[in-house]
Amino acid sequence: MSDVGDDAPDFTGSLVDGDIAPFELSDHLGDEPVVLAFFPAAFSNTCTDEMEALRDGFDRDDCTLFGVSTDLPHALGAYRAQYDLPFALVGDPDHRAIEAYDVIEDFEHYGVETVAQRAVFVIDADGTVTYRWLADNAGQEPDYDELAAAVADASA
Questions:
Q1: Residues paired with 21 in a beta bridge
Q2: Catalytic pick from 29, 34, 47, 122?
Q3: How far apart (Å, rounded) are the C-alpha atoms in residues 114 and 116?
Q4: pLDDT, averaged across the chain
Q5: In order of start, what are the domains of the chain with their CATH numbers?
């Protein structure tokens, strides 16, 4: 489990930002805080509400924000385009990120195993986890004001 004060685990996946390219977290550390917003499934109700809240009401000027899901990159590309998300998404179909951050959830009632638990991590420019939030249930969204404060603290 990655906790506040720990070095952020590095991971690889697929960067979806209009194109699809290899992604490695360590390539994005060093300039400003990084926010990793793990979400269970593209196109689902609460996940879309969360991504739209991050799009519309969250100030991304002082951080680099990535939405992270186990969905395939092409599905994330369609999702990003449909909801006009201005930040990149990271496809994690091999579960490297969710295993590294220990944010694994199963939706057995849907017959779906091993998706991302809804969670948010803030990582400072030095690569240290400075904020961690884990949803108690899949329908819960993060406190966006608390997240903004965590980004400001990581920027200081």
A1: 15
A2: 47
A3: 7
A4: 93
A5: 12-155 (3.40.30.10)
